[in-house]
Design brief:
elongated, Rossmann fold, eleven-stranded mixed beta sheet, Alpha-Beta Plaits, about 25% helix
Length: about 220
């Protein structure tokens, strides 16, 4: 997979290093000469250019990219890069960094953004996830389809503890994608039984989040033990 990253700061370089370790091709783009540190990510391609300029993106051959990541520290730049990547070059997947939470509402499909990553929101979500059992935590927002990646730790008193995944009447527009049980990551087959303490990750429509939380947090009746 070929990935272009606009912004070669600490965030962009860290993403590049991770992707390279996983066997992907990575191009880092930045207009600041001081940001071009080839020795820090030697396996990446580097381009000294303004990612908001069509001529720069032509040089980067953005049409060959499977993914573009707008990772600069400027939300305006990230929005412009996202829009150009999607509308001018037809990049299948565009991921954008949100620096200021007040701007998060702009990072949607109208600006070409498929996935918006807000560091403040993610940090807050991780704190909530660490202290909350039975509460739905939103980890990531997907622009297309108004869907979110959400997590809930199944509480001991949940009526779904011990129930098979295939026997649960899940709300519409929700999909259980992963079960984290201790140190194990499980693919949720219909025969897999849910256990108290399971961390459940869903992709769910925002309108269904409350319904999903109610379903997972419902308490057992006294006669159920």
């Amino acid at each position: 997979m070929r990935v272009s990253i606009a912004g070669a700061g600490a965030v962009g370089r860290s993403i590049a290093a991770e992707l390279l370790e996983n066997g992907h091709e990575v191009l880092l783009i930045d207009k600041a000469p001081t940001a071009i540190s080839v020795e820090r990510v030697p396996m990446a391609e580097w381009l000294l250019a303004d990612a908001c300029e069509i001529t720069s993106l032509d040089e980067a051959a953005l049409q060959r990219c499977n993914v573009v990541i707008a990772a600069t520290g400027d939300d305006k730049v990230n929005l412009v890069v996202s829009l150009l990547a999607k509308t001018e070059y037809g990049v299948p997947r565009v991921v954008a960094r949100v620096n200021n939470p007040k701007n998060e509402w702009l990072f949607n499909e109208s600006w070409g953004v498929d996935v918006a990553v807000s560091t403040p929101r993610l940090m807050s979500a991780l704190v909530e996830e660490a202290v909350s059992v039975g509460d739905l935590v939103r980890l990531l927002r997907f622009s297309h389809g108004d869907a979110n990646l959400v997590e809930l730790t199944l509480p001991p008193e949940s009526a779904l503890a011990g129930i098979r995944v295939g026997d649960v009447a899940w709300p519409a527009d929700t999909s259980l994608v992963t079960i984290i049980r201790g140190t194990r990551v499980l693919t949720p087959s219909p025969e897999e039984s849910l256990e108290a303490g399971d961390e459940l990750l869903f992709v769910a429509a925002q309108a269904r989040e409350e319904q999903l939380e109610d379903l997972l947090s419902v308490r057992r009746s006294p006669e159920d033990g």
